[in-house]
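Q: Please design a sequence for this.
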């Protein structure tokens, strides 16, 4: 039996349109803005037949045991009445800890994709 983790794909977001790109920005008072986006360099199709359905963002503190889900973003408009959701998300967390952000995206045809970015 295949484990779910064995189905997650990764790659360079500059060369692969499914990989979520992560950007982080330190704000004041220990706040951190995290942006996750699919298709910045190579646009992903956004049709009923082929689209990014969701992006999830996690943070694992350097001393933490497990990643914590800090954001979950659904994209539901894929051309109905010429309305399209863009697979990008932004959120703010508050922590003084170092750690790693993880993003997971889901393409309805090509499955799960991941990326990570260390926060120092």
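A: Design:
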């Amino acid at each position: 039996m295949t484990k779910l983790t064995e189905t997650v794909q990764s790659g360079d977001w500059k060369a692969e349109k499914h990989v979520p790109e992560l950007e982080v920005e330190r704000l004041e008072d220990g706040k951190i803005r995290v942006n996750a986006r699919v298709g910045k360099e190579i646009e992903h199709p956004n049709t009923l037949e082929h689209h990014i359905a969701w992006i999830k963002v996690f943070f694992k503190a350097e001393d933490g045991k497990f990643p914590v889900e800090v954001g979950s973003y659904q994209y539901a408009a894929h051309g109905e009445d010429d309305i399209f959701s863009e697979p990008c998300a932004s959120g703010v967390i508050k922590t003084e800890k170092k750690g790693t952000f993880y993003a997971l995206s889901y393409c309805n045809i090509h499955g799960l994709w991941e990326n990570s970015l260390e926060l120092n």
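Q: Thanks. Anything notable?
A: The two ends are 38 Å apart (CA to CA). Residues 24 and 34 are 5 Å apart (CA to CA).
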